[in-house]
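Quick one:
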Amino acid sequence: MLSIRKIGIIGRAYRHLNRYRHILTVLFKYGFGDLVDILKIEQYLEIGLQMISRKRREQVEKLSRAERVRMVMEELGPTFVKLGQILSTRPDLISVEFIHELSKLQDNVPPFPYIEARRIIESELGKPLEDIFRHFENTPLAAASIGQVHRAQLKDGEEVVVKVQRPGIRKTIEVDLEIMLHLASLMERHLEELQVHRPVRIVQEFARTLGKEIDYTIEALHIERFARQSMADPTVYVPKIFRDITTERVLTMEYIDGIKASEIDRIEREGLDRKIITARGADLILRQIFDHGFFHADPHPGNIFVLQDNIICYIDFGMMGAIDRQTREDFADLIYTVVNRDESRATQMLLKLTEYDEKPDVRPLERDLTDFIGQHLYVPLKDLQMEKLLQQLLKILSRHRLQIPQDLFLMMKALATVEGIGLLLDPDFEMIKQITPFIRRVKMARYHPKRMADDIARSGVEFVQLMQEIPGETREILKQMKQGKIKMEFEHKGLEPMLSTHDQISNRIAFAIVIAALIIGSALIVLSKTPPFLFGISFIGIIGFLAAAVMGLWLLIAILKKGRL
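Output:
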Protein backbone atom coordinates (compact mmCIF):
# COMPACT_ATOMS: atom_id res chain seq x y z
CA MET A 1 0.00 0.00 0.00
CA LEU A 2 1.03 3.62 -0.49
CA SER A 3 2.68 5.38 2.46
CA ILE A 4 1.81 9.03 3.12
CA ARG A 5 2.88 11.11 6.06
CA LYS A 6 1.40 14.44 7.08
CA ILE A 7 3.91 17.25 6.55
CA GLY A 8 4.28 19.56 9.51
CA ILE A 9 6.38 22.51 8.40
CA ILE A 10 7.18 22.29 4.72
CA GLY A 11 10.44 24.20 5.19
CA ARG A 12 11.77 21.15 7.04
CA ALA A 13 10.69 18.72 4.31
CA TYR A 14 13.68 19.40 2.05
CA ARG A 15 13.07 16.24 0.04
CA HIS A 16 9.83 17.82 -1.24
CA LEU A 17 11.01 21.42 -1.61
CA ASN A 18 11.41 21.59 -5.40
CA ARG A 19 8.20 19.70 -6.09
CA TYR A 20 6.26 21.86 -3.63
CA ARG A 21 7.62 25.02 -5.28
CA HIS A 22 6.64 23.66 -8.71
CA ILE A 23 3.07 22.92 -7.56
CA LEU A 24 2.65 26.41 -6.07
CA THR A 25 4.10 28.06 -9.17
CA VAL A 26 1.59 26.21 -11.37
CA LEU A 27 -1.23 27.32 -9.04
CA PHE A 28 -0.13 30.94 -9.50
CA LYS A 29 0.20 30.43 -13.24
CA TYR A 30 -3.45 29.40 -13.55
CA GLY A 31 -4.87 32.15 -11.37
CA PHE A 32 -4.98 30.51 -7.93
CA GLY A 33 -2.67 33.01 -6.23
CA ASP A 34 -5.50 34.00 -3.89
CA LEU A 35 -5.66 30.40 -2.64
CA VAL A 36 -1.93 30.43 -1.89
CA ASP A 37 -2.36 33.71 0.04
CA ILE A 38 -5.33 32.40 2.04
CA LEU A 39 -3.51 29.19 2.96
CA LYS A 40 -0.48 31.26 4.09
CA ILE A 41 1.96 29.02 2.21
CA GLU A 42 4.25 31.89 1.24
CA GLN A 43 5.76 31.76 4.72
CA TYR A 44 7.28 28.38 3.80
CA LEU A 45 8.57 29.04 0.29
CA GLU A 46 9.67 31.84 -1.98
CA ILE A 47 8.07 31.32 -5.35
CA GLY A 48 9.51 32.62 -8.62
CA LEU A 49 6.36 34.52 -9.57
CA GLN A 50 8.34 36.93 -11.71
CA MET A 51 8.49 34.17 -14.34
CA ILE A 52 4.71 34.33 -14.83
CA SER A 53 3.70 37.29 -16.92
CA ARG A 54 0.71 39.36 -15.90
CA LYS A 55 -0.73 39.05 -19.43
CA ARG A 56 -0.59 35.27 -19.20
CA ARG A 57 -2.43 35.29 -15.86
CA GLU A 58 -5.13 37.60 -17.23
CA GLN A 59 -5.70 35.27 -20.20
CA VAL A 60 -6.00 32.23 -17.94
CA GLU A 61 -8.33 33.95 -15.47
CA LYS A 62 -10.90 34.41 -18.25
CA LEU A 63 -11.46 30.64 -18.17
CA SER A 64 -13.84 29.02 -15.69
CA ARG A 65 -12.48 27.80 -12.38
CA ALA A 66 -13.18 24.18 -13.38
CA GLU A 67 -11.23 24.59 -16.64
CA ARG A 68 -8.27 26.07 -14.75
CA VAL A 69 -8.32 23.21 -12.23
CA ARG A 70 -8.18 20.72 -15.12
CA MET A 71 -5.24 22.58 -16.68
CA VAL A 72 -3.39 22.62 -13.35
CA MET A 73 -3.81 18.84 -13.01
CA GLU A 74 -2.67 18.22 -16.58
CA GLU A 75 0.51 20.23 -16.03
CA LEU A 76 1.32 18.69 -12.63
CA GLY A 77 1.51 15.16 -14.02
CA PRO A 78 0.45 11.57 -13.27
CA THR A 79 -0.66 11.80 -9.63
CA PHE A 80 -2.78 14.89 -10.19
CA VAL A 81 -4.20 13.55 -13.48
CA LYS A 82 -5.27 10.40 -11.63
CA LEU A 83 -6.75 12.52 -8.82
CA GLY A 84 -8.80 14.43 -11.39
CA GLN A 85 -9.96 11.25 -13.13
CA ILE A 86 -11.01 9.68 -9.84
CA LEU A 87 -12.75 12.88 -8.66
CA SER A 88 -14.70 12.95 -11.95
CA THR A 89 -16.43 9.78 -10.68
CA ARG A 90 -17.28 11.28 -7.27
CA PRO A 91 -20.39 13.51 -7.43
CA ASP A 92 -20.58 13.14 -3.65
CA LEU A 93 -17.36 15.17 -3.38
CA ILE A 94 -17.39 17.76 -6.20
CA SER A 95 -19.96 19.72 -8.21
CA VAL A 96 -21.40 18.82 -11.63
CA GLU A 97 -19.34 21.54 -13.36
CA PHE A 98 -16.08 20.04 -12.08
CA ILE A 99 -17.19 16.46 -12.88
CA HIS A 100 -17.82 17.44 -16.51
CA GLU A 101 -14.46 19.21 -16.85
CA LEU A 102 -12.31 16.66 -15.02
CA SER A 103 -13.78 13.82 -17.08
CA LYS A 104 -11.84 15.32 -20.03
CA LEU A 105 -8.50 14.52 -18.38
CA GLN A 106 -6.45 12.06 -20.42
CA ASP A 107 -3.08 10.43 -19.81
CA ASN A 108 -0.71 12.16 -22.21
CA VAL A 109 2.80 11.12 -21.25
CA PRO A 110 5.79 9.89 -23.29
CA PRO A 111 6.90 6.26 -22.92
CA PHE A 112 9.88 5.42 -20.73
CA PRO A 113 12.94 3.64 -22.23
CA TYR A 114 12.87 -0.09 -23.05
CA ILE A 115 15.93 -0.69 -20.87
CA GLU A 116 13.95 0.51 -17.82
CA ALA A 117 11.01 -1.77 -18.71
CA ARG A 118 13.42 -4.70 -19.05
CA ARG A 119 15.05 -3.94 -15.69
CA ILE A 120 11.66 -3.81 -13.89
CA ILE A 121 10.43 -7.08 -15.46
CA GLU A 122 13.62 -8.93 -14.59
CA SER A 123 13.62 -7.52 -11.06
CA GLU A 124 9.97 -8.48 -10.47
CA LEU A 125 10.12 -11.96 -12.05
CA GLY A 126 13.65 -12.84 -10.94
CA LYS A 127 14.72 -14.07 -14.40
CA PRO A 128 16.41 -12.64 -17.49
CA LEU A 129 13.90 -11.44 -20.11
CA GLU A 130 15.11 -14.09 -22.60
CA ASP A 131 14.21 -16.89 -20.18
CA ILE A 132 10.57 -15.72 -20.08
CA PHE A 133 9.81 -14.48 -23.61
CA ARG A 134 10.77 -15.71 -27.05
CA HIS A 135 10.28 -12.18 -28.33
CA PHE A 136 9.68 -8.83 -26.60
CA GLU A 137 8.98 -5.64 -28.60
CA ASN A 138 11.14 -2.68 -27.59
CA THR A 139 8.55 -0.08 -28.63
CA PRO A 140 5.42 0.01 -26.41
CA LEU A 141 1.93 -0.31 -27.86
CA ALA A 142 0.66 2.42 -25.51
CA ALA A 143 1.91 4.57 -22.63
CA ALA A 144 -0.06 6.01 -19.70
CA SER A 145 0.71 7.84 -16.47
CA ILE A 146 1.07 4.69 -14.36
CA GLY A 147 2.63 2.28 -16.86
CA GLN A 148 3.03 1.22 -20.46
CA VAL A 149 2.18 -1.88 -22.53
CA HIS A 150 4.56 -3.97 -24.64
CA ARG A 151 3.67 -6.79 -27.00
CA ALA A 152 5.58 -10.04 -26.50
CA GLN A 153 5.60 -13.76 -27.28
CA LEU A 154 5.99 -16.50 -24.68
CA LYS A 155 8.33 -19.47 -25.07
CA ASP A 156 5.41 -21.66 -26.19
CA GLY A 157 4.56 -19.17 -28.95
CA GLU A 158 1.48 -17.57 -27.29
CA GLU A 159 1.05 -13.87 -28.03
CA VAL A 160 0.74 -11.67 -24.93
CA VAL A 161 0.85 -8.04 -23.80
CA VAL A 162 2.92 -7.01 -20.80
CA LYS A 163 1.92 -3.98 -18.74
CA VAL A 164 4.94 -2.54 -16.92
CA GLN A 165 4.74 0.07 -14.18
CA ARG A 166 6.73 3.29 -14.60
CA PRO A 167 10.06 3.37 -12.77
CA GLY A 168 9.88 5.43 -9.57
CA ILE A 169 6.15 6.11 -10.01
CA ARG A 170 5.34 4.84 -6.50
CA LYS A 171 7.81 7.27 -4.90
CA THR A 172 6.58 10.15 -7.08
CA ILE A 173 2.99 9.42 -6.06
CA GLU A 174 3.88 9.22 -2.35
CA VAL A 175 5.67 12.60 -2.45
CA ASP A 176 2.73 14.22 -4.27
CA LEU A 177 0.26 12.67 -1.84
CA GLU A 178 2.18 14.05 1.15
CA ILE A 179 2.07 17.53 -0.38
CA MET A 180 -1.64 17.09 -1.21
CA LEU A 181 -2.30 16.07 2.39
CA HIS A 182 -0.51 19.16 3.68
CA LEU A 183 -2.46 21.46 1.33
CA ALA A 184 -5.72 19.70 2.30
CA SER A 185 -5.05 20.24 6.01
CA LEU A 186 -4.37 23.95 5.34
CA MET A 187 -7.64 24.19 3.39
CA GLU A 188 -9.61 22.73 6.29
CA ARG A 189 -7.92 25.16 8.66
CA HIS A 190 -8.28 28.37 6.61
CA LEU A 191 -11.27 27.84 4.27
CA GLU A 192 -14.47 27.40 6.26
CA GLU A 193 -16.58 26.70 3.15
CA LEU A 194 -14.39 23.68 2.28
CA GLN A 195 -14.59 22.09 5.72
CA VAL A 196 -17.87 20.37 4.80
CA HIS A 197 -16.08 18.61 1.89
CA ARG A 198 -13.29 17.42 4.24
CA PRO A 199 -10.31 17.75 1.84
CA VAL A 200 -8.09 15.60 4.11
CA ARG A 201 -10.57 12.73 3.82
CA ILE A 202 -10.61 13.15 0.02
CA VAL A 203 -6.80 12.83 -0.17
CA GLN A 204 -6.78 9.81 2.14
CA GLU A 205 -9.50 8.13 0.09
CA PHE A 206 -7.66 8.98 -3.12
CA ALA A 207 -4.49 7.39 -1.69
CA ARG A 208 -6.40 4.15 -1.01
CA THR A 209 -7.92 4.11 -4.52
CA LEU A 210 -4.62 4.86 -6.24
CA GLY A 211 -2.87 2.27 -4.08
CA LYS A 212 -5.17 -0.36 -5.58
CA GLU A 213 -4.66 0.94 -9.13
CA ILE A 214 -0.86 0.64 -9.01
CA ASP A 215 -1.10 -2.95 -7.76
CA TYR A 216 -1.53 -5.02 -10.93
CA THR A 217 -2.44 -8.17 -8.97
CA ILE A 218 -5.77 -6.47 -8.10
CA GLU A 219 -6.49 -5.91 -11.82
CA ALA A 220 -5.67 -9.59 -12.40
CA LEU A 221 -8.26 -10.53 -9.75
CA HIS A 222 -10.81 -8.31 -11.51
CA ILE A 223 -10.20 -10.12 -14.81
CA GLU A 224 -10.52 -13.55 -13.22
CA ARG A 225 -13.76 -12.61 -11.45
CA PHE A 226 -15.16 -11.12 -14.66
CA ALA A 227 -14.19 -14.30 -16.56
CA ARG A 228 -16.02 -16.50 -14.01
CA GLN A 229 -19.26 -14.52 -14.23
CA SER A 230 -19.09 -14.51 -18.07
CA MET A 231 -18.35 -18.24 -18.58
CA ALA A 232 -21.84 -19.06 -19.85
CA ASP A 233 -22.05 -16.04 -22.17
CA PRO A 234 -20.92 -16.81 -25.77
CA THR A 235 -21.19 -13.14 -26.81
CA VAL A 236 -18.24 -11.99 -24.67
CA TYR A 237 -14.56 -12.96 -24.60
CA VAL A 238 -12.29 -12.33 -21.58
CA PRO A 239 -8.48 -12.26 -22.07
CA LYS A 240 -6.48 -14.90 -20.23
CA ILE A 241 -4.20 -13.87 -17.35
CA PHE A 242 -0.77 -15.46 -16.88
CA ARG A 243 -0.50 -15.55 -13.10
CA ASP A 244 3.06 -16.94 -12.94
CA ILE A 245 4.39 -13.85 -14.74
CA THR A 246 2.18 -11.26 -13.05
CA THR A 247 3.22 -9.20 -10.00
CA GLU A 248 2.33 -5.85 -8.42
CA ARG A 249 4.36 -4.03 -11.10
CA VAL A 250 4.03 -6.40 -14.09
CA LEU A 251 0.78 -7.70 -15.62
CA THR A 252 0.87 -10.30 -18.40
CA MET A 253 -2.31 -11.12 -20.31
CA GLU A 254 -3.37 -12.58 -23.62
CA TYR A 255 -2.90 -10.37 -26.69
CA ILE A 256 -6.23 -9.50 -28.33
CA ASP A 257 -6.23 -8.81 -32.06
CA GLY A 258 -9.55 -7.00 -32.35
CA ILE A 259 -11.17 -3.84 -33.67
CA LYS A 260 -11.85 -0.86 -31.43
CA ALA A 261 -15.57 -0.20 -31.04
CA SER A 262 -15.06 3.32 -32.44
CA GLU A 263 -13.44 2.10 -35.71
CA ILE A 264 -16.67 2.08 -37.73
CA ASP A 265 -15.04 1.81 -41.17
CA ARG A 266 -12.96 -1.19 -40.16
CA ILE A 267 -15.99 -2.89 -38.62
CA GLU A 268 -17.80 -2.41 -41.94
CA ARG A 269 -14.82 -3.75 -43.95
CA GLU A 270 -14.65 -6.90 -41.80
CA GLY A 271 -18.33 -7.57 -42.49
CA LEU A 272 -19.41 -7.30 -38.85
CA ASP A 273 -22.98 -6.34 -37.92
CA ARG A 274 -23.12 -2.97 -36.14
CA LYS A 275 -26.67 -3.49 -34.84
CA ILE A 276 -25.79 -6.87 -33.30
CA ILE A 277 -22.61 -5.42 -31.75
CA THR A 278 -24.62 -2.54 -30.26
CA ALA A 279 -27.33 -4.80 -28.80
CA ARG A 280 -24.76 -7.24 -27.41
CA GLY A 281 -22.64 -4.49 -25.90
CA ALA A 282 -25.68 -2.97 -24.16
CA ASP A 283 -26.92 -6.36 -22.91
CA LEU A 284 -23.43 -7.16 -21.64
CA ILE A 285 -23.18 -4.08 -19.40
CA LEU A 286 -26.81 -4.54 -18.26
CA ARG A 287 -26.16 -8.19 -17.29
CA GLN A 288 -23.04 -7.13 -15.41
CA ILE A 289 -25.04 -4.59 -13.42
CA PHE A 290 -28.41 -6.22 -12.84
CA ASP A 291 -27.50 -9.94 -12.82
CA HIS A 292 -24.01 -9.97 -11.26
CA GLY A 293 -23.58 -6.61 -9.53
CA PHE A 294 -19.92 -6.44 -10.74
CA PHE A 295 -19.34 -4.34 -13.82
CA HIS A 296 -16.74 -2.64 -15.99
CA ALA A 297 -16.79 0.98 -14.86
CA ASP A 298 -14.81 2.48 -17.76
CA PRO A 299 -16.27 1.02 -20.98
CA HIS A 300 -14.97 3.73 -23.34
CA PRO A 301 -14.26 2.81 -27.03
CA GLY A 302 -10.52 2.30 -26.40
CA ASN A 303 -11.28 -0.40 -23.82
CA ILE A 304 -13.77 -2.36 -25.97
CA PHE A 305 -12.65 -4.56 -28.87
CA VAL A 306 -14.91 -6.32 -31.36
CA LEU A 307 -13.83 -9.81 -32.48
CA GLN A 308 -15.04 -12.09 -35.27
CA ASP A 309 -18.69 -13.20 -35.07
CA ASN A 310 -19.55 -9.86 -33.36
CA ILE A 311 -18.06 -10.96 -30.03
CA ILE A 312 -17.31 -8.24 -27.45
CA CYS A 313 -14.02 -8.13 -25.55
CA TYR A 314 -12.87 -5.74 -22.80
CA ILE A 315 -9.10 -5.25 -22.57
CA ASP A 316 -8.57 -3.03 -19.49
CA PHE A 317 -9.99 -3.90 -16.07
CA GLY A 318 -8.34 -1.22 -13.92
CA MET A 319 -11.65 0.42 -12.94
CA MET A 320 -14.49 -1.84 -11.85
CA GLY A 321 -17.68 -1.16 -9.90
CA ALA A 322 -19.80 -3.25 -7.54
CA ILE A 323 -23.50 -2.79 -6.75
CA ASP A 324 -25.26 -4.86 -4.09
CA ARG A 325 -28.65 -6.47 -4.70
CA GLN A 326 -30.59 -3.96 -2.59
CA THR A 327 -29.16 -1.00 -4.50
CA ARG A 328 -29.96 -2.66 -7.84
CA GLU A 329 -33.54 -3.19 -6.73
CA ASP A 330 -33.86 0.37 -5.42
CA PHE A 331 -32.52 1.72 -8.73
CA ALA A 332 -35.00 -0.43 -10.64
CA ASP A 333 -37.79 0.95 -8.42
CA LEU A 334 -36.64 4.51 -9.12
CA ILE A 335 -36.79 3.93 -12.90
CA TYR A 336 -40.19 2.25 -12.56
CA THR A 337 -41.71 5.09 -10.50
CA VAL A 338 -40.35 7.71 -12.90
CA VAL A 339 -41.85 5.89 -15.91
CA ASN A 340 -45.19 5.61 -14.07
CA ARG A 341 -45.11 9.33 -13.10
CA ASP A 342 -45.28 8.57 -9.37
CA GLU A 343 -43.41 11.66 -8.18
CA SER A 344 -43.96 11.01 -4.47
CA ARG A 345 -42.63 7.45 -4.64
CA ALA A 346 -39.78 8.55 -6.92
CA THR A 347 -38.74 11.12 -4.30
CA GLN A 348 -38.71 8.43 -1.60
CA MET A 349 -36.57 6.12 -3.78
CA LEU A 350 -34.15 8.94 -4.61
CA LEU A 351 -33.70 9.70 -0.91
CA LYS A 352 -33.14 5.99 -0.26
CA LEU A 353 -30.44 5.78 -2.94
CA THR A 354 -28.57 8.93 -1.92
CA GLU A 355 -26.70 10.13 1.15
CA TYR A 356 -27.13 13.42 3.01
CA ASP A 357 -26.05 15.19 6.20
CA GLU A 358 -29.49 16.70 6.76
CA LYS A 359 -32.69 15.42 5.20
CA PRO A 360 -33.80 17.95 2.55
CA ASP A 361 -37.22 19.57 2.32
CA VAL A 362 -39.21 16.92 0.44
CA ARG A 363 -41.68 19.25 -1.31
CA PRO A 364 -39.14 21.28 -3.38
CA LEU A 365 -37.37 18.02 -4.27
CA GLU A 366 -40.66 16.49 -5.40
CA ARG A 367 -41.40 19.60 -7.52
CA ASP A 368 -38.00 19.31 -9.21
CA LEU A 369 -38.60 15.62 -9.92
CA THR A 370 -42.03 16.45 -11.34
CA ASP A 371 -40.40 18.92 -13.75
CA PHE A 372 -37.70 16.35 -14.57
CA ILE A 373 -40.30 13.68 -15.37
CA GLY A 374 -42.40 16.13 -17.37
CA GLN A 375 -39.42 17.15 -19.54
CA HIS A 376 -38.40 13.59 -20.41
CA LEU A 377 -41.34 11.23 -20.06
CA TYR A 378 -43.28 12.47 -23.10
CA VAL A 379 -40.22 12.52 -25.37
CA PRO A 380 -39.91 9.61 -27.86
CA LEU A 381 -37.62 6.86 -26.52
CA LYS A 382 -35.13 7.35 -29.35
CA ASP A 383 -34.64 10.99 -28.25
CA LEU A 384 -33.91 10.10 -24.61
CA GLN A 385 -30.21 10.01 -23.77
CA MET A 386 -28.77 8.64 -20.54
CA GLU A 387 -25.97 11.24 -20.52
CA LYS A 388 -28.43 14.16 -20.50
CA LEU A 389 -30.65 12.44 -17.93
CA LEU A 390 -27.64 11.84 -15.68
CA GLN A 391 -26.41 15.44 -15.93
CA GLN A 392 -29.83 16.88 -15.07
CA LEU A 393 -30.31 14.42 -12.21
CA LEU A 394 -26.91 15.41 -10.77
CA LYS A 395 -27.94 19.07 -10.87
CA ILE A 396 -31.12 18.26 -8.91
CA LEU A 397 -29.12 16.27 -6.35
CA SER A 398 -26.58 19.08 -5.99
CA ARG A 399 -29.33 21.67 -5.51
CA HIS A 400 -30.79 19.66 -2.61
CA ARG A 401 -27.38 18.68 -1.12
CA LEU A 402 -27.89 14.99 -1.86
CA GLN A 403 -24.85 12.81 -2.51
CA ILE A 404 -24.91 9.84 -4.85
CA PRO A 405 -22.60 6.95 -3.82
CA GLN A 406 -19.57 6.42 -6.06
CA ASP A 407 -20.45 2.94 -7.35
CA LEU A 408 -24.01 4.01 -8.20
CA PHE A 409 -22.63 6.97 -10.13
CA LEU A 410 -20.10 4.70 -11.89
CA MET A 411 -22.97 2.43 -12.88
CA MET A 412 -24.99 5.29 -14.35
CA LYS A 413 -21.93 6.70 -16.09
CA ALA A 414 -21.09 3.27 -17.55
CA LEU A 415 -24.63 3.03 -18.94
CA ALA A 416 -24.30 6.51 -20.46
CA THR A 417 -20.90 5.64 -22.00
CA VAL A 418 -22.20 2.41 -23.54
CA GLU A 419 -25.20 4.32 -24.88
CA GLY A 420 -22.81 6.77 -26.58
CA ILE A 421 -20.90 3.93 -28.25
CA GLY A 422 -24.21 2.31 -29.22
CA LEU A 423 -25.44 5.48 -30.94
CA LEU A 424 -22.10 5.71 -32.78
CA LEU A 425 -22.57 2.19 -34.14
CA ASP A 426 -26.35 2.29 -34.55
CA PRO A 427 -28.07 5.72 -34.72
CA ASP A 428 -31.44 4.02 -34.04
CA PHE A 429 -30.27 2.47 -30.77
CA GLU A 430 -32.57 3.12 -27.74
CA MET A 431 -30.88 2.46 -24.40
CA ILE A 432 -34.09 3.02 -22.41
CA LYS A 433 -35.84 0.33 -24.48
CA GLN A 434 -32.89 -2.04 -23.93
CA ILE A 435 -32.94 -1.56 -20.16
CA THR A 436 -36.70 -2.11 -19.70
CA PRO A 437 -36.72 -5.95 -19.58
CA PHE A 438 -33.86 -5.91 -17.05
CA ILE A 439 -35.80 -3.53 -14.78
CA ARG A 440 -38.86 -5.76 -15.05
CA ARG A 441 -36.82 -8.88 -14.30
CA VAL A 442 -35.25 -7.32 -11.19
CA LYS A 443 -38.67 -6.35 -9.87
CA MET A 444 -40.16 -9.79 -10.55
CA ALA A 445 -37.19 -11.60 -8.95
CA ARG A 446 -38.16 -10.01 -5.64
CA TYR A 447 -41.39 -12.06 -5.59
CA HIS A 448 -39.88 -15.40 -6.59
CA PRO A 449 -40.89 -18.07 -4.00
CA LYS A 450 -37.28 -19.07 -3.28
CA ARG A 451 -36.23 -15.43 -2.82
CA MET A 452 -39.20 -14.74 -0.52
CA ALA A 453 -38.42 -17.88 1.51
CA ASP A 454 -34.77 -16.81 1.82
CA ASP A 455 -35.78 -13.31 2.93
CA ILE A 456 -38.20 -14.67 5.53
CA ALA A 457 -35.59 -17.14 6.83
CA ARG A 458 -32.94 -14.42 7.07
CA SER A 459 -35.34 -12.05 8.85
CA GLY A 460 -36.25 -14.84 11.26
CA VAL A 461 -32.60 -15.54 12.07
CA GLU A 462 -31.94 -11.84 12.64
CA PHE A 463 -35.01 -11.56 14.89
CA VAL A 464 -33.91 -14.56 16.99
CA GLN A 465 -30.41 -13.07 17.30
CA LEU A 466 -31.92 -9.76 18.40
CA MET A 467 -34.06 -11.47 21.05
CA GLN A 468 -30.97 -13.30 22.34
CA GLU A 469 -28.96 -10.09 22.56
CA ILE A 470 -31.61 -7.88 24.24
CA PRO A 471 -31.32 -9.34 27.79
CA GLY A 472 -27.52 -9.07 27.81
CA GLU A 473 -27.53 -5.55 26.37
CA THR A 474 -30.23 -4.43 28.86
CA ARG A 475 -28.23 -5.92 31.75
CA GLU A 476 -25.11 -4.05 30.58
CA ILE A 477 -27.01 -0.73 30.38
CA LEU A 478 -28.45 -1.17 33.89
CA LYS A 479 -24.98 -2.05 35.20
CA GLN A 480 -23.47 1.10 33.71
CA MET A 481 -26.34 3.19 35.10
CA LYS A 482 -25.66 1.84 38.60
CA GLN A 483 -21.97 2.63 38.26
CA GLY A 484 -22.73 6.14 36.98
CA LYS A 485 -20.88 5.50 33.71
CA ILE A 486 -23.69 6.47 31.35
CA LYS A 487 -23.28 9.97 30.02
CA MET A 488 -25.46 12.05 27.74
CA GLU A 489 -23.68 14.40 25.39
CA PHE A 490 -25.25 17.15 23.30
CA GLU A 491 -23.47 18.39 20.22
CA HIS A 492 -24.45 21.74 18.73
CA LYS A 493 -23.54 22.26 15.09
CA GLY A 494 -23.24 25.59 13.33
CA LEU A 495 -23.04 27.63 16.55
CA GLU A 496 -19.29 28.32 16.39
CA PRO A 497 -19.55 31.67 14.51
CA MET A 498 -22.28 32.92 16.91
CA LEU A 499 -20.33 31.82 20.01
CA SER A 500 -17.20 33.50 18.65
CA THR A 501 -19.14 36.73 18.09
CA HIS A 502 -20.59 36.56 21.61
CA ASP A 503 -17.10 36.06 23.06
CA GLN A 504 -15.88 39.08 21.11
CA ILE A 505 -18.77 41.25 22.31
CA SER A 506 -18.34 40.23 25.95
CA ASN A 507 -14.58 40.83 25.77
CA ARG A 508 -15.08 44.33 24.35
CA ILE A 509 -17.70 45.18 26.99
CA ALA A 510 -15.36 43.98 29.75
CA PHE A 511 -12.51 45.98 28.20
CA ALA A 512 -14.70 49.11 28.05
CA ILE A 513 -15.76 48.66 31.70
CA VAL A 514 -12.11 48.40 32.74
CA ILE A 515 -11.30 51.58 30.78
CA ALA A 516 -14.25 53.42 32.34
CA ALA A 517 -13.20 52.23 35.81
CA LEU A 518 -9.64 53.48 35.20
CA ILE A 519 -10.90 56.90 34.09
CA ILE A 520 -13.28 57.28 37.06
CA GLY A 521 -10.71 55.96 39.55
CA SER A 522 -7.98 58.21 38.17
CA ALA A 523 -10.29 61.23 38.31
CA LEU A 524 -11.12 60.52 42.00
CA ILE A 525 -7.40 60.16 42.82
CA VAL A 526 -6.62 63.50 41.11
CA LEU A 527 -9.49 65.26 42.91
CA SER A 528 -8.46 63.82 46.28
CA LYS A 529 -4.91 65.08 45.64
CA THR A 530 -3.26 61.78 46.53
CA PRO A 531 0.58 62.10 46.58
CA PRO A 532 3.12 61.88 44.98
CA PHE A 533 2.60 64.82 42.63
CA LEU A 534 3.93 65.71 39.18
CA PHE A 535 3.42 69.37 38.19
CA GLY A 536 0.92 69.60 41.02
CA ILE A 537 -1.18 66.68 39.77
CA SER A 538 -1.37 63.24 41.42
CA PHE A 539 1.18 60.97 39.68
CA ILE A 540 -0.98 57.84 40.25
CA GLY A 541 -3.93 59.58 38.59
CA ILE A 542 -1.77 60.46 35.56
CA ILE A 543 -0.67 56.80 35.24
CA GLY A 544 -4.33 55.71 35.36
CA PHE A 545 -5.37 58.21 32.65
CA LEU A 546 -2.48 57.08 30.40
CA ALA A 547 -3.37 53.40 30.87
CA ALA A 548 -7.01 54.16 30.01
CA ALA A 549 -5.91 56.11 26.90
CA VAL A 550 -3.70 53.23 25.66
CA MET A 551 -6.42 50.64 26.27
CA GLY A 552 -9.04 52.82 24.58
CA LEU A 553 -6.81 53.30 21.53
CA TRP A 554 -6.18 49.55 21.41
CA LEU A 555 -9.93 48.85 21.53
CA LEU A 556 -10.62 51.40 18.78
CA ILE A 557 -7.97 49.90 16.48
CA ALA A 558 -9.39 46.38 17.03
CA ILE A 559 -12.88 47.60 16.10
CA LEU A 560 -11.65 49.45 13.00
CA LYS A 561 -9.74 46.38 11.82
CA LYS A 562 -13.01 44.45 11.77
CA GLY A 563 -14.53 47.24 9.69
CA ARG A 564 -17.43 47.76 12.06
CA LEU A 565 -17.74 50.45 14.79
